[in-house]
Description:
single chain; alpha/beta; 6-stranded parallel sheet
Amino acid sequence: MNIAMNIAYLSTFYPFRGGIAQFNASLLQALAKTEQVEAYTFKRQYPELLFPGSSQYVTPQDAQAEVINSLPLLDTINPISYWTTAKKIRAFAPDLLLMKFWMPFFAPSLGTVAANMLPKTKRVAILDNLIPHESRFFDKSLIAYFLKNTDAYVVMSQAVLDDLLHFKPQAQYLLFPHPLYDHFGQKLTRQEALAHWGIEKDKKVLLFFGFIRKYKGLDLLLDAFAHLSQDYVLLIGGESYLAESERQALQKSIETHPAAERIKAHIRYIPDEEVSLFFSAADVNILPYRSATQSGVTAIAYHFEVPVLVHDVGGLREMVEPYQTGEVLEAPFTPLRLAEKITHFFEKQNPNDWKQNLRNFKTNYSWEKLAQAIVSL
């Protein structure tokens, strides 16, 4: 008879919103089916001055947000809270401390909590990114501090694994693809979704979805879109995390675009209940990233059985090619080459092949299987 493991899960949970909170909620629920799990979260995740979006917290529009009962303890900019958080978690006497790490900003707080666990507690970090897309000179010392105080790692792409082994060559790790988000509801009929956005049913719909940052290459996609015929529509959904001057430049490029009438831009936070409307209308989800490790957006696309077209950066190829769930564009990444790849995608695709491959991925890489793999690790 297996004895349940005590797991302390310290990361972003409700009432925080966004992809990190969604990931944590899904994994916690899978772990809780077999283990004793307690959730701990932040009293303050980011100072408002450092947060680029409209809100860190769930709003009334986030109707499908996963409500997780968690204890708010950790304040990232108050070192006293590092010690009080560690003391509270130690009282639970966990066999495993599980944390999610996605930027060096969190290294002092999470690393100090991890350093002050009981000797029996194994400390495992799920690494979204190790080296940030927009790095600073002090990042490496912060990363080294965090890794010194953790025992094993979960990575979801070879790119992140390579970074980990650069810092810690003997690291224990689990490589597991990003499971699919499954809390966005069912896929709508294409006709219903197209009608909602005012798109004609014979159009080929390209989707760009997710937080808008410079490295995600929306500007490259807009330039590529100028090379495509009247058959195409570009649907954009996501909140801007750009600096104010960059936001204004993006808005101007959309308004003055030669195909502006075929661009449906929704530059705002997209609540969970609207996500299905975007992906149900899409023929393909485009990720024209300049850099990447992996992307949670692919996990949403796969849930809705939408193939992806990605740039060959970071771990994006390995999320697509082995499973035959889309197309990969190799460097150099120019607007013209991206436009040609999009055209080629529609010329060769067989929708039934994509759907079957995406369904196979769903079966093999579930939250439950990730939870089992972490416990085994």
